[in-house]
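Figure 2 data, in text form.
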Amino acid sequence: MAQWVWQDGDRENDEFVIPGPISGKAVWDRFGPLFPEDAPTRLMRANGTEETMSWRQVPSLTVETDERLLLPGIPVAGGPLLYVMARLLGPDGCPWDKKQTPQSLLRYLLDESYEAAEALVANDQEAFIEELGDVLLQVAFQGSLLSGTSFSDIAERQAQKLVRRHPHVFAEETWANSEEVRQQWDNLKAQEPQHTRTATWVYPGLVAAKRLDKAGIRPESAVYQEILALLEVYFDKSPGKIEEILADAAWAVASGGRIHHQDAEWALWQKLARMARKTGEISRNLR
């Protein structure tokens, strides 16, 4: 039904074209949720004239023979990435990729986000663009593995959320300044269905460990007790250098993990998750 039109390498003028004959309702049923209702849409008449309308008017249209409807944007912009992802997960794809689950990929979702943040703070634009691509890969990968959804579903839901939370842009409301926008954003967010399941221990390991410890949840192992006692010895000897002692101790743990080809942060994070689930303290103490 749809036609992709490439405009001599000019990305800004690439178009997604639907040729007639077709009803506007059929177009809306397929693509309606993808664009804001006030997005401009063009109908190319058979006589060469062009008519511009809002996206919300499409259901009432009839695109006749030799006419073409130009959508507001390209609804398959993630196509190349999704094609590669489908090949990787297909019958002749990558054995490692096909073994993954949303849970097994969680560490990479976190790692790639941190690497993108690092590139941004370092003001390395090329690295930042590359790392954003790695973050996008994790979104596409997760979307490919989750049952009942896809990358397109995720993108569509996010676009709808942005339109819903910006009525001062996509509807008739007018908000005066950025502070009012923030307040109204919070109000609109509060009106949306709330997620009932929580796992807010999903912080960096040391932050989550501090929160669990404050709630009275801590390991009972000899390793934990002995290292804590050793730290207290150093604290007593140098009470003015507790922060430096903590930093060196944490670094030593990271080094120990590297020497033995283990990720100390990931190891701590997994233990925290197990303990939080076991004790049932997740939602009550870690909000």
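Caption note: Residues 205-285 form one domain.
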